[in-house]
Amino acid sequence: MKQTTRILTLGVLAAFCSSALADDYTTKVVARGLTRPTGILALGGDTIYFTEVPTPGVGGGLNGVKALNVKSGKTRVIHIGEPEPTNLAADRHGNLYWTCKSAGVILEQSPSKPQSTAVVVLGNLSKPSGVAVDRWGDIYFTQVPTPGVPGGLNSVSVFDGDVTTVLHVGEPEPTDIVVDRDGDLYWTCKSAGVILRQDNDGITTVLVKDLPKPTGIAIDRQGRNLYWTEVPNPGVSGANGGTNKVVEMNLRTKVTKIVNSGDPEPTDVTVARDGTLYWTCGSAGVIVEAREKRRPRFDRDDD
Description:
Elements: E1 5-7, E2 20-21, E3 25-31, E4 37-42, E5 47-52, E6 64-69, E7 75-80, E8 85-90, E9 96-100, E10 105-109, E11 119-122, E12 128-133, E13 139-143, E14 155-159, E15 164-169, E16 174-179, E17 185-189, E18 194-198, E19 204-208, E20 214-219, E21 225-230, E22 245-250, E23 256-261, E24 266-271, E25 277-281, E26 286-292
Parallel strand pairs: 1-23
Antiparallel strand pairs: 2-3, 3-26, 4-5, 5-6, 6-7, 8-9, 9-10, 10-11, 12-13, 13-14, 14-15, 16-17, 17-18, 18-19, 20-21, 21-22, 22-23, 24-25, 25-26
């Protein structure tokens, strides 16, 4: 597939200044001092949710799911103590879901309820990684027990509340996944350097190829734009030669543009209802916000 790229932002965040101006985007850090922030999710309003994994695989530790108010900068704990909370999703009622990779589970919790109310929705999974929930409440997730192994046991599945169905198997590393309003799936395959799409008929195609370690993925509410992170040099800022990026693709034209380049480790990305982007930077311990200048900010529910 021929891919057209327009570089719009070369804002190097090595020093993580309070703001960095670009042609189309205004970028700033909205949270600092975090320890290995990983998954991230924006819904409506000024609250975003993220996972922090300072001690992966250690139960009862400081790994947790937290909420950040981007206006005040204050955080609160949603849940703590899981051995490896990885990626996040939410249903149409605002209930949170997250994968716990080392424990092999997917958990659910309302962000308004106490931490102790988290429940296991699915267990006995093999290294669950990405998770997404469609408008009907079905939960899509990836499992990566054999990362980097083509034809292995890695899979993409869906749970409808009663039955789990395997939708795709054999990709070397299905890392993160999103679902659009029509039920079409998109997921990153980090080691293969591709993004795949599966439509409602179950047909899987390669949407983009030849990417350097695509990791996190997100889609806007209208299903027009797909966003992903590329992390070929984790922990290396642009000032030191790193080429990590946050990328946007218009799904109609297939034109891509670089939202940001130079972040040392853009781990996961999310897009809010108003089009604002946020991503975690695992090694720098920050969450970054990017606003497109020409896009007015408003919260809208298009359901």
